Each structure stands twice: as structure tokens, then as C-alpha cells.
Amino acid sequence: MFPYRLNSVRKSRGVTAQQMADFLCMGLRAYRNYESGDRFPSADTLIKIADKLDVSIDYLLGRDNFLKSHGVFFDEF
Fold it and tell me: Which of 3, 10, 30, 43 is the most buried (most CB within 10 A)?
């Protein structure tokens, strides 16, 4: 879920993978590992990604249905 949502939101925001890698101070290959699902970011990096893309961490992690089931609603992106 995370790799798909990361890729989808990044593209919808008009941000390139290289721009994300630069923002996160990492190489493009390292960033692409997040979008391919080969690696998962640290908590600090996950926060930076969510902030840059203006989405919640819960949305990126696919927890939006869990939150909705508990009465928490938000815009997906």
C-alpha cells in the first residue's frame, strides 16, 4: 500500500522522484526503493515525506479505512 500511495501522491502533486530524493538528502536510487517497496523509510523520513506531499502518514500507510471506522475523517489528498 505505501509504495503505491507514495508514487500516486507524488505524481499528483507534480513532484519528480529526483525532487523527492533531493528534498530527503538521498540518492534517486535510494528514494526509488521506497516506491518499489524494497525499503521502508525511517519514522523521521516518513514524516518528511508526508509533510512535503501534504498528506497524513496514516493515508500513506493505508490506515485511512481504519481511521474512518473510528469516526476520523480527512481529505485523502
Answer: 10
- Residue of 52, 59, 63 whose CA lies nearest to 76: 59
The yes-or-no verdict on residue 12 having pLDDT over 70 is yes
Cell of 25: 538528502
Q: Is residue 77 part of a domain?
A: no
Residue 32: domain span? 2-68
Max CA separation in the chain (angstroms) = 39
Residue bearing cell 536510487 = 29
Q: What CATH number did the domain enclosing 6 receive?
A: 1.10.260.40
pLDDT in tens, 33-70: 999 999 999 999 999 999 999 998 988 998 876 556 65
Name the pTM for this structure: 0.83
